[in-house]
Here is the input.
Amino acid sequence: MALSGLDIYKLLPKTNCRECGFATCLAFAMQLAKKAVSIDKCPYLSEEAKRILEASSLPPIKSVSIGTGESKLEIGNETVMFRHEEKFRSPCGLGFIIEDNLKDSEILGKLEKINNLKFERVGQELDVNLVAVRQNTQANRFKEAVKLVLGHTGLSLVLISSDLEGLKSALEMSKERMPLIYYNGKDLSQIAPLAKELKLPLVVSNPDLEKIIEITNELSKQGINDLILDAGKKSISRKIWDLTQIRRQALKKSNRSLGFPTLVIIDESDPYEEAIEAATYITKYASIVLMRGIESWQVLSLLTLRQNIYTDPQKPLQIEPKLYPVGQANDKSPLLVTTNFSLTYYTVLGEVEASKVPSYILSVDTEGMSVLTAWAAEKFTPEKISESINKFGIKDAVSHKKLIIPGYVAVMSGDLEEQSGYQVIVGPKEAAGLPSFLKNLG
Ligand code: SF4
Here is the structure.
Protein backbone atom coordinates (compact mmCIF):
# COMPACT_ATOMS: atom_id res chain seq x y z
CA MET A 1 0.00 0.00 0.00
CA ALA A 2 1.28 3.48 -0.80
CA LEU A 3 2.65 5.33 2.25
CA SER A 4 1.88 8.95 3.07
CA GLY A 5 4.64 11.56 3.37
CA LEU A 6 4.41 11.41 7.17
CA ASP A 7 4.58 7.60 7.21
CA ILE A 8 7.75 7.83 5.11
CA TYR A 9 9.20 10.59 7.31
CA LYS A 10 8.97 8.27 10.34
CA LEU A 11 11.32 5.85 8.54
CA LEU A 12 13.96 8.48 7.70
CA PRO A 13 17.01 9.35 9.90
CA LYS A 14 15.62 12.88 10.65
CA THR A 15 19.10 14.48 10.69
CA ASN A 16 18.31 17.02 7.96
CA CYS A 17 21.83 16.52 6.56
CA ARG A 18 20.72 17.76 3.08
CA GLU A 19 22.72 15.14 1.17
CA CYS A 20 19.60 14.10 -0.73
CA GLY A 21 19.33 17.60 -2.17
CA PHE A 22 16.42 18.61 0.08
CA ALA A 23 16.61 20.99 3.04
CA THR A 24 14.91 18.54 5.44
CA CYS A 25 14.07 14.87 5.75
CA LEU A 26 10.40 15.88 5.74
CA ALA A 27 10.74 17.61 2.37
CA PHE A 28 12.42 14.48 0.98
CA ALA A 29 9.63 12.30 2.42
CA MET A 30 6.97 14.42 0.73
CA GLN A 31 8.71 14.04 -2.63
CA LEU A 32 9.08 10.29 -2.10
CA ALA A 33 5.36 10.01 -1.41
CA LYS A 34 4.71 11.72 -4.76
CA LYS A 35 7.18 9.29 -6.39
CA ALA A 36 9.13 12.36 -7.60
CA VAL A 37 12.50 11.05 -6.25
CA SER A 38 14.17 7.72 -5.70
CA ILE A 39 14.99 6.28 -2.25
CA ASP A 40 18.65 5.92 -3.38
CA LYS A 41 19.09 9.67 -2.87
CA CYS A 42 19.28 9.18 0.89
CA PRO A 43 22.47 7.22 1.76
CA TYR A 44 21.48 6.81 5.43
CA LEU A 45 18.38 4.65 5.15
CA SER A 46 18.37 1.54 7.33
CA GLU A 47 17.89 -1.84 5.60
CA GLU A 48 14.48 -2.15 7.26
CA ALA A 49 13.39 1.29 6.00
CA LYS A 50 14.59 0.39 2.48
CA ARG A 51 12.63 -2.85 2.55
CA ILE A 52 9.42 -1.13 3.66
CA LEU A 53 9.78 1.71 1.16
CA GLU A 54 10.55 -0.64 -1.74
CA ALA A 55 7.59 -2.84 -0.87
CA SER A 56 5.29 0.18 -0.66
CA SER A 57 6.24 1.27 -4.17
CA LEU A 58 5.19 -2.08 -5.71
CA PRO A 59 1.64 -2.33 -7.10
CA PRO A 60 -0.63 -4.09 -4.56
CA ILE A 61 -1.79 -6.54 -7.25
CA LYS A 62 1.03 -7.76 -9.44
CA SER A 63 0.90 -7.19 -13.16
CA VAL A 64 1.21 -10.49 -15.05
CA SER A 65 1.34 -11.02 -18.82
CA ILE A 66 0.42 -14.03 -20.95
CA GLY A 67 1.38 -14.53 -24.59
CA THR A 68 3.41 -12.41 -26.96
CA GLY A 69 2.98 -9.74 -29.63
CA GLU A 70 -0.38 -8.19 -30.37
CA SER A 71 -2.29 -10.91 -28.52
CA LYS A 72 -0.36 -10.43 -25.28
CA LEU A 73 -2.73 -10.14 -22.35
CA GLU A 74 -1.73 -7.94 -19.39
CA ILE A 75 -3.71 -8.45 -16.20
CA GLY A 76 -3.46 -7.32 -12.56
CA ASN A 77 -2.11 -3.95 -11.43
CA GLU A 78 -5.53 -3.02 -10.04
CA THR A 79 -5.59 -0.37 -7.32
CA VAL A 80 -9.23 0.10 -6.27
CA MET A 81 -12.17 -2.00 -5.09
CA PHE A 82 -14.76 0.15 -6.82
CA ARG A 83 -14.57 1.64 -10.29
CA HIS A 84 -15.78 5.09 -9.19
CA GLU A 85 -12.80 5.41 -6.77
CA GLU A 86 -10.49 5.79 -9.78
CA LYS A 87 -10.80 3.20 -12.57
CA PHE A 88 -10.25 -0.49 -13.26
CA ARG A 89 -7.01 -0.80 -15.21
CA SER A 90 -6.55 -4.21 -16.88
CA PRO A 91 -9.62 -5.54 -18.69
CA CYS A 92 -10.56 -9.09 -17.74
CA GLY A 93 -9.21 -11.61 -20.27
CA LEU A 94 -11.93 -13.73 -21.86
CA GLY A 95 -10.93 -17.20 -23.04
CA PHE A 96 -12.42 -20.48 -24.26
CA ILE A 97 -11.69 -24.03 -23.22
CA ILE A 98 -10.99 -26.64 -25.87
CA GLU A 99 -10.99 -30.25 -24.64
CA ASP A 100 -8.27 -32.44 -26.12
CA ASN A 101 -10.68 -35.39 -26.56
CA LEU A 102 -12.55 -33.58 -29.33
CA LYS A 103 -11.90 -34.69 -32.91
CA ASP A 104 -9.46 -32.59 -34.93
CA SER A 105 -12.30 -31.33 -37.13
CA GLU A 106 -14.25 -30.23 -34.03
CA ILE A 107 -11.24 -28.41 -32.62
CA LEU A 108 -10.67 -26.64 -35.95
CA GLY A 109 -14.34 -25.69 -36.16
CA LYS A 110 -14.22 -24.18 -32.67
CA LEU A 111 -11.01 -22.30 -33.43
CA GLU A 112 -12.52 -20.81 -36.56
CA LYS A 113 -15.48 -19.57 -34.55
CA ILE A 114 -13.26 -18.21 -31.77
CA ASN A 115 -11.02 -16.38 -34.26
CA ASN A 116 -14.11 -14.70 -35.70
CA LEU A 117 -15.28 -13.38 -32.33
CA LYS A 118 -14.42 -9.77 -33.19
CA PHE A 119 -16.84 -6.91 -32.79
CA GLU A 120 -16.87 -3.15 -33.04
CA ARG A 121 -18.78 -1.01 -30.58
CA VAL A 122 -18.71 2.80 -30.21
CA GLY A 123 -15.64 2.93 -32.41
CA GLN A 124 -13.62 0.38 -30.41
CA GLU A 125 -12.57 -3.13 -31.42
CA LEU A 126 -13.76 -5.78 -28.97
CA ASP A 127 -11.68 -8.96 -29.01
CA VAL A 128 -11.40 -12.16 -27.03
CA ASN A 129 -8.03 -13.08 -25.57
CA LEU A 130 -7.28 -16.71 -24.81
CA VAL A 131 -7.66 -20.32 -25.88
CA ALA A 132 -7.22 -22.88 -23.11
CA VAL A 133 -6.44 -26.49 -24.06
CA ARG A 134 -7.52 -28.94 -21.36
CA GLN A 135 -6.07 -32.42 -21.14
CA ASN A 136 -8.53 -35.28 -20.61
CA THR A 137 -6.66 -38.02 -22.47
CA GLN A 138 -3.12 -39.28 -23.05
CA ALA A 139 -0.10 -36.98 -23.28
CA ASN A 140 0.25 -37.59 -27.02
CA ARG A 141 -3.29 -36.50 -27.78
CA PHE A 142 -2.90 -33.40 -25.58
CA LYS A 143 0.24 -32.52 -27.51
CA GLU A 144 -1.58 -32.96 -30.84
CA ALA A 145 -4.45 -30.76 -29.69
CA VAL A 146 -2.02 -28.04 -28.53
CA LYS A 147 -0.24 -28.25 -31.89
CA LEU A 148 -3.55 -27.75 -33.72
CA VAL A 149 -4.38 -24.73 -31.57
CA LEU A 150 -0.93 -23.20 -32.03
CA GLY A 151 -1.25 -23.54 -35.79
CA HIS A 152 -4.73 -22.07 -36.09
CA THR A 153 -4.99 -19.13 -33.71
CA GLY A 154 -2.80 -16.23 -32.68
CA LEU A 155 -4.61 -15.87 -29.34
CA SER A 156 -2.68 -16.41 -26.13
CA LEU A 157 -2.61 -19.93 -24.77
CA VAL A 158 -3.47 -21.61 -21.47
CA LEU A 159 -2.41 -25.23 -20.89
CA ILE A 160 -4.59 -27.06 -18.36
CA SER A 161 -3.42 -30.48 -17.27
CA SER A 162 -2.85 -32.73 -14.27
CA ASP A 163 -0.41 -34.89 -16.22
CA LEU A 164 3.12 -33.68 -15.65
CA GLU A 165 4.60 -35.42 -18.69
CA GLY A 166 1.80 -34.24 -20.99
CA LEU A 167 2.19 -30.68 -19.74
CA LYS A 168 5.97 -30.70 -20.11
CA SER A 169 5.86 -31.94 -23.70
CA ALA A 170 3.15 -29.38 -24.62
CA LEU A 171 5.26 -26.66 -23.01
CA GLU A 172 8.32 -27.68 -24.97
CA MET A 173 6.33 -27.14 -28.15
CA SER A 174 4.57 -23.90 -27.14
CA LYS A 175 6.99 -22.08 -24.81
CA GLU A 176 7.79 -19.38 -27.42
CA ARG A 177 4.14 -18.28 -27.23
CA MET A 178 4.51 -17.69 -23.46
CA PRO A 179 1.47 -19.73 -22.37
CA LEU A 180 -0.10 -19.70 -18.94
CA ILE A 181 0.60 -22.95 -17.09
CA TYR A 182 -2.36 -24.38 -15.21
CA TYR A 183 -1.16 -27.59 -13.53
CA ASN A 184 -4.06 -29.06 -11.58
CA GLY A 185 -2.15 -32.08 -10.33
CA LYS A 186 -1.31 -32.72 -6.69
CA ASP A 187 1.98 -30.93 -6.18
CA LEU A 188 2.65 -27.57 -7.85
CA SER A 189 6.32 -27.76 -6.86
CA GLN A 190 6.73 -30.37 -9.61
CA ILE A 191 6.12 -27.81 -12.35
CA ALA A 192 7.11 -24.54 -10.61
CA PRO A 193 10.87 -24.81 -11.40
CA LEU A 194 10.05 -25.23 -15.11
CA ALA A 195 7.76 -22.17 -15.00
CA LYS A 196 10.64 -20.24 -13.45
CA GLU A 197 13.15 -21.49 -16.00
CA LEU A 198 10.88 -20.64 -18.95
CA LYS A 199 9.70 -17.36 -17.30
CA LEU A 200 6.08 -18.41 -17.74
CA PRO A 201 3.12 -17.42 -15.57
CA LEU A 202 1.67 -20.12 -13.33
CA VAL A 203 -1.78 -20.70 -11.84
CA VAL A 204 -2.04 -21.44 -8.12
CA SER A 205 -5.30 -23.29 -7.62
CA ASN A 206 -6.77 -24.28 -4.27
CA PRO A 207 -10.27 -24.00 -2.79
CA ASP A 208 -8.80 -22.77 0.51
CA LEU A 209 -7.44 -19.18 0.55
CA GLU A 210 -5.17 -20.00 3.51
CA LYS A 211 -3.55 -22.73 1.42
CA ILE A 212 -3.17 -20.33 -1.50
CA ILE A 213 -1.32 -17.94 0.83
CA GLU A 214 1.03 -20.75 1.93
CA ILE A 215 1.74 -21.73 -1.68
CA THR A 216 2.33 -18.18 -2.99
CA ASN A 217 4.64 -17.46 -0.03
CA GLU A 218 6.65 -20.58 -0.81
CA LEU A 219 6.81 -19.78 -4.53
CA SER A 220 7.79 -16.16 -3.84
CA LYS A 221 10.70 -17.41 -1.73
CA GLN A 222 11.85 -19.36 -4.80
CA GLY A 223 11.62 -16.20 -6.93
CA ILE A 224 8.43 -17.32 -8.72
CA ASN A 225 6.14 -14.29 -8.75
CA ASP A 226 4.22 -14.38 -12.02
CA LEU A 227 1.25 -16.07 -10.40
CA ILE A 228 -2.49 -16.15 -11.04
CA LEU A 229 -4.90 -17.37 -8.37
CA ASP A 230 -7.85 -19.73 -8.84
CA ALA A 231 -10.01 -20.42 -5.77
CA GLY A 232 -11.32 -23.62 -7.40
CA LYS A 233 -14.74 -25.12 -7.97
CA LYS A 234 -17.48 -23.86 -5.66
CA SER A 235 -20.86 -22.14 -5.71
CA ILE A 236 -21.13 -18.77 -7.45
CA SER A 237 -21.76 -16.91 -4.19
CA ARG A 238 -18.78 -18.57 -2.52
CA LYS A 239 -16.60 -17.76 -5.52
CA ILE A 240 -17.61 -14.10 -5.50
CA TRP A 241 -16.80 -14.05 -1.79
CA ASP A 242 -13.33 -15.49 -2.43
CA LEU A 243 -12.61 -13.17 -5.38
CA THR A 244 -13.66 -10.20 -3.25
CA GLN A 245 -11.55 -11.35 -0.31
CA ILE A 246 -8.49 -11.78 -2.52
CA ARG A 247 -8.91 -8.26 -3.89
CA ARG A 248 -9.69 -6.74 -0.49
CA GLN A 249 -6.79 -8.46 1.25
CA ALA A 250 -4.38 -7.27 -1.44
CA LEU A 251 -5.62 -3.68 -1.61
CA LYS A 252 -6.81 -2.90 1.90
CA LYS A 253 -4.61 -5.15 4.05
CA SER A 254 -1.46 -5.05 1.89
CA ASN A 255 -1.47 -8.84 1.87
CA ARG A 256 1.22 -9.54 -0.71
CA SER A 257 0.51 -13.29 -0.62
CA LEU A 258 -2.84 -12.61 -2.32
CA GLY A 259 -1.66 -9.67 -4.45
CA PHE A 260 -2.03 -11.48 -7.77
CA PRO A 261 -4.56 -11.52 -10.62
CA THR A 262 -7.33 -14.13 -10.45
CA LEU A 263 -8.75 -16.74 -12.80
CA VAL A 264 -12.12 -18.45 -12.96
CA ILE A 265 -13.12 -21.53 -14.95
CA ILE A 266 -16.82 -21.91 -15.75
CA ASP A 267 -17.92 -25.49 -16.42
CA GLU A 268 -21.63 -24.75 -16.87
CA SER A 269 -23.44 -26.59 -19.67
CA ASP A 270 -26.46 -24.24 -19.93
CA PRO A 271 -25.28 -21.41 -22.22
CA TYR A 272 -27.53 -18.80 -20.56
CA GLU A 273 -26.32 -19.72 -17.06
CA GLU A 274 -22.78 -19.74 -18.38
CA ALA A 275 -23.08 -16.19 -19.77
CA ILE A 276 -24.67 -14.94 -16.54
CA GLU A 277 -21.92 -16.55 -14.46
CA ALA A 278 -19.21 -15.08 -16.68
CA ALA A 279 -20.80 -11.62 -16.41
CA THR A 280 -20.83 -11.96 -12.62
CA TYR A 281 -17.11 -12.74 -12.47
CA ILE A 282 -16.15 -10.03 -14.96
CA THR A 283 -17.90 -7.59 -12.64
CA LYS A 284 -16.28 -8.91 -9.45
CA TYR A 285 -13.23 -9.48 -9.67
CA ALA A 286 -11.87 -12.04 -12.10
CA SER A 287 -8.80 -11.11 -14.15
CA ILE A 288 -9.41 -14.06 -16.49
CA VAL A 289 -12.66 -15.92 -17.25
CA LEU A 290 -12.40 -19.23 -19.10
CA MET A 291 -15.64 -20.71 -20.47
CA ARG A 292 -16.73 -23.32 -22.99
CA GLY A 293 -19.50 -21.44 -24.82
CA ILE A 294 -18.40 -19.63 -27.96
CA GLU A 295 -21.73 -18.31 -29.22
CA SER A 296 -21.47 -14.75 -30.46
CA TRP A 297 -24.58 -13.67 -28.48
CA GLN A 298 -22.81 -14.79 -25.29
CA VAL A 299 -19.48 -13.23 -26.16
CA LEU A 300 -20.75 -9.89 -27.48
CA SER A 301 -22.74 -9.28 -24.32
CA LEU A 302 -19.72 -10.13 -22.15
CA LEU A 303 -17.34 -7.95 -24.17
CA THR A 304 -19.82 -5.07 -24.01
CA LEU A 305 -20.03 -5.46 -20.23
CA ARG A 306 -16.24 -5.57 -20.01
CA GLN A 307 -15.91 -2.46 -22.15
CA ASN A 308 -18.32 -0.56 -19.91
CA ILE A 309 -16.65 -1.62 -16.68
CA TYR A 310 -13.11 -0.95 -17.82
CA THR A 311 -13.77 2.50 -19.24
CA ASP A 312 -12.27 5.28 -17.15
CA PRO A 313 -15.33 6.88 -15.46
CA GLN A 314 -13.51 10.25 -15.41
CA LYS A 315 -12.99 10.14 -19.19
CA PRO A 316 -16.08 9.32 -21.22
CA LEU A 317 -15.45 7.59 -24.52
CA GLN A 318 -15.22 10.27 -27.14
CA ILE A 319 -14.71 10.62 -30.84
CA GLU A 320 -12.76 13.28 -32.69
CA PRO A 321 -14.94 16.38 -33.05
CA LYS A 322 -15.31 17.13 -36.77
CA LEU A 323 -17.69 16.90 -39.73
CA TYR A 324 -18.53 13.30 -40.70
CA PRO A 325 -20.14 12.49 -44.07
CA VAL A 326 -22.56 9.53 -44.01
CA GLY A 327 -23.15 7.72 -47.31
CA GLN A 328 -22.67 9.71 -50.53
CA ALA A 329 -23.24 13.06 -48.82
CA ASN A 330 -23.17 16.12 -51.13
CA ASP A 331 -23.67 19.86 -50.74
CA LYS A 332 -27.48 19.45 -50.55
CA SER A 333 -27.39 16.79 -47.82
CA PRO A 334 -28.96 17.42 -44.40
CA LEU A 335 -26.60 18.63 -41.69
CA LEU A 336 -27.17 17.20 -38.20
CA VAL A 337 -25.38 18.40 -35.12
CA THR A 338 -24.59 16.31 -32.04
CA THR A 339 -21.94 15.91 -29.33
CA ASN A 340 -18.67 13.96 -29.44
CA PHE A 341 -19.72 11.42 -26.78
CA SER A 342 -19.06 8.09 -28.56
CA LEU A 343 -22.28 6.44 -27.55
CA THR A 344 -24.34 9.45 -28.72
CA TYR A 345 -22.45 9.80 -31.99
CA TYR A 346 -22.63 6.10 -32.90
CA THR A 347 -26.30 5.92 -32.00
CA VAL A 348 -27.03 8.90 -34.29
CA LEU A 349 -24.76 7.43 -36.98
CA GLY A 350 -26.59 4.08 -36.87
CA GLU A 351 -29.97 5.74 -37.32
CA VAL A 352 -28.77 8.05 -40.11
CA GLU A 353 -27.31 5.02 -41.93
CA ALA A 354 -30.59 3.17 -41.42
CA SER A 355 -32.46 6.09 -43.02
CA LYS A 356 -30.38 5.67 -46.21
CA VAL A 357 -30.45 9.49 -46.55
CA PRO A 358 -26.87 10.67 -47.25
CA SER A 359 -26.15 13.28 -44.57
CA TYR A 360 -23.47 15.10 -42.60
CA ILE A 361 -23.06 14.79 -38.85
CA LEU A 362 -21.27 17.66 -37.14
CA SER A 363 -19.75 16.37 -33.91
CA VAL A 364 -19.14 19.24 -31.48
CA ASP A 365 -16.40 18.99 -28.84
CA THR A 366 -18.35 18.60 -25.59
CA GLU A 367 -15.50 16.77 -23.81
CA GLY A 368 -17.30 13.49 -24.33
CA MET A 369 -20.59 14.51 -22.71
CA SER A 370 -23.98 13.45 -24.03
CA VAL A 371 -26.48 16.02 -25.35
CA LEU A 372 -28.40 16.96 -22.22
CA THR A 373 -25.40 16.68 -19.88
CA ALA A 374 -23.33 18.86 -22.20
CA TRP A 375 -26.14 21.38 -22.53
CA ALA A 376 -26.53 21.55 -18.72
CA ALA A 377 -22.75 21.93 -18.33
CA GLU A 378 -22.69 24.68 -20.98
CA LYS A 379 -20.49 22.60 -23.30
CA PHE A 380 -23.17 22.29 -26.01
CA THR A 381 -24.19 25.90 -26.54
CA PRO A 382 -25.03 28.14 -29.52
CA GLU A 383 -21.49 29.61 -29.22
CA LYS A 384 -19.82 26.19 -29.30
CA ILE A 385 -21.92 24.98 -32.23
CA SER A 386 -21.26 28.21 -34.17
CA GLU A 387 -17.53 27.82 -33.49
CA SER A 388 -17.63 24.27 -34.83
CA ILE A 389 -19.48 25.38 -37.97
CA ASN A 390 -16.60 27.75 -38.74
CA LYS A 391 -13.81 25.47 -37.57
CA PHE A 392 -14.81 22.36 -39.53
CA GLY A 393 -15.48 24.02 -42.91
CA ILE A 394 -19.23 23.50 -43.07
CA LYS A 395 -19.55 26.28 -45.66
CA ASP A 396 -17.34 24.30 -48.06
CA ALA A 397 -19.24 21.06 -47.51
CA VAL A 398 -22.87 22.19 -47.82
CA SER A 399 -24.43 24.93 -49.94
CA HIS A 400 -27.56 25.36 -47.79
CA LYS A 401 -27.81 27.05 -44.39
CA LYS A 402 -29.96 24.62 -42.43
CA LEU A 403 -28.94 22.86 -39.24
CA ILE A 404 -30.77 20.00 -37.49
CA ILE A 405 -30.36 19.97 -33.71
CA PRO A 406 -31.46 17.29 -31.20
CA GLY A 407 -35.04 17.78 -29.97
CA TYR A 408 -33.87 17.90 -26.34
CA VAL A 409 -32.10 21.23 -26.92
CA ALA A 410 -34.88 22.92 -28.91
CA VAL A 411 -34.66 25.73 -26.39
CA MET A 412 -31.42 26.99 -27.97
CA SER A 413 -32.94 27.37 -31.47
CA GLY A 414 -33.39 31.16 -31.37
CA ASP A 415 -29.92 31.96 -30.01
CA LEU A 416 -28.30 29.48 -32.37
CA GLU A 417 -30.01 30.99 -35.42
CA GLU A 418 -28.82 34.43 -34.34
CA GLN A 419 -25.25 33.40 -33.67
CA SER A 420 -24.68 31.00 -36.57
CA GLY A 421 -26.79 32.60 -39.28
CA TYR A 422 -28.21 29.12 -40.00
CA GLN A 423 -31.88 28.17 -40.02
CA VAL A 424 -32.34 25.75 -37.13
CA ILE A 425 -34.60 22.73 -37.58
CA VAL A 426 -35.49 20.86 -34.41
CA GLY A 427 -34.98 17.14 -34.89
CA PRO A 428 -36.47 14.27 -32.85
CA LYS A 429 -35.62 13.92 -29.17
CA GLU A 430 -34.51 10.32 -29.59
CA ALA A 431 -32.13 9.14 -32.31
CA ALA A 432 -34.59 6.35 -33.12
CA GLY A 433 -36.85 9.01 -34.66
CA LEU A 434 -34.19 10.06 -37.20
CA PRO A 435 -34.96 7.65 -40.09
CA SER A 436 -38.56 8.80 -40.52
CA PHE A 437 -37.57 12.43 -39.77
CA LEU A 438 -34.87 12.45 -42.48
CA LYS A 439 -37.06 10.66 -45.04
CA ASN A 440 -39.81 13.27 -44.56
CA LEU A 441 -37.49 16.27 -44.46
CA GLY A 442 -38.36 17.33 -47.99
FE1 SF4 B 1 17.29 13.27 5.63
FE2 SF4 B 1 18.48 11.33 4.20
FE3 SF4 B 1 17.95 13.68 3.07
FE4 SF4 B 1 19.83 13.51 4.93
S1 SF4 B 1 19.85 12.52 2.93
S2 SF4 B 1 18.23 15.06 4.75
S3 SF4 B 1 18.98 11.98 6.27
S4 SF4 B 1 16.50 12.21 3.86
